[in-house]
Design goal:
By secondary structure, this protein is α+β, with helices and mostly antiparallel strands. Helices cover 33% and strands 27% of the residues. It has one domain: Aspartate Aminotransferase, domain 1 (Alpha-Beta Complex).
């Protein structure tokens, strides 16, 4: 996946916002919380995303993937796809979508409702 595809995919998710920060990284947020980061490494583009505990254990051992620098070292369950073979484009999209969902789970119902991500209370 190229950065343009990554950005297009993240932008299509509901209520996302985009900022460039941390030395030119493409940072995607939902409800002001980061769910995906893309950027250019030395040789290839990299993509960082939040995962479940089970996925963290499985993915950190796969070629082209590693615990995300800085985030994982602080005990957070984030993986970085940094080189091939890594994940296929579809797998990467699936994990980014799951990251979006995991981050959104941590957002209050009130805030999700304000964003239009929950049905209004009756």
């Amino acid at each position: 996946m190229k950065l343009a595809q990554f950005n297009k995919f993240c932008k299509a998710l509901p209520c996302t916002t985009y900022v460039m920060q941390w030395g030119g990284c493409h940072v995607w947020k939902v409800a002001d919380k980061v769910f995906a980061i893309g950027g250019m490494g030395e040789d290839e583009e990299f993509y960082t995303f939040k995962v479940s505990p089970w996925a963290f254990e499985v993915l950190q051992e796969q070629p082209g993937l590693c615990p995300a620098p800085y985030l994982a070292s602080r005990g957070l369950l984030w993986i970085q796809h940094y080189e091939k073979p890594g994940l296929s484009d579809q797998q990467l999209k699936d994990y980014i979508r799951k990251s979006y969902d995991l981050v959104l789970e941590g957002v209050s119902k009130k805030k999700r409702r304000e964003l239009g991500l929950l049905e209004p209370q009756k």
